[in-house]
Amino acid sequence: MAKIKKKVKTIKVDADKCNGCRGCELVCSAYHSSPKYSTINPARSRIQIIRHPLKDIWLPVFAGEYAPAECMGRDVYTIDGKEYDECTFCRAACPSRDIFKEPDSGLPLKCDMCESDPPLEKPKCVEWCLNDVLTYEEREEEVEEGVEMEEVEVGLKSMINKYGMQNILDTVNRISQKQ
Ligand code: SF4
Ligand code: SF4
After folding, report:
1. Model's pTM, two decimal places?
2. Using a 6 Å cutoff on CB, does residue 134 contact ligand 2?
3. What's the average model confidence in pLDDT over 111-139?
4. For 6-19, what is the mean pLDDT?
């Protein structure tokens, strides 16, 4: 299979600097509203701050892949004497919890790195985090052509199984009419 160059975008998280201000959630939800900046609703954000103020834990987590079933087991991490609850580091939109789901349709949300045309210099959450928690980097990697579309197809099939084709089509139709 032919190799192609792929741009890999990374956001590094220095969690110790996060104070839980939730500015990243606000700007993400505003940027992804239709039209852009028309509403602010942190429940629609693709970044969520996991908060445990009594344990001094403020952890930014980015929405990742959709998972049609919840894990069979759970993990608990202790780092620097702080115990993190089960699922804290998980990025999946899954049936076991409410985060990373669009509040109206229930469809999963996923961080798209603020893809736009023309491209942004840096994603909105990075730009608006005033505590330098988030750092954006880009690099190029060689990947096999076609692999990405296979991943899209697997994700789409899972979503159709879970939410039904009509719900997906209705949501796409609603979003496209607002563009
Ligand atoms: S904007 Fe920065 S400091 Fe505020 S919650 Fe988000 S990551 Fe933490
Ligand atoms: S990179 Fe963009 S889409 Fe992803 S969490 Fe940040 S603001 Fe939201």
Report:
1. 0.82
2. no
3. 96
4. 95
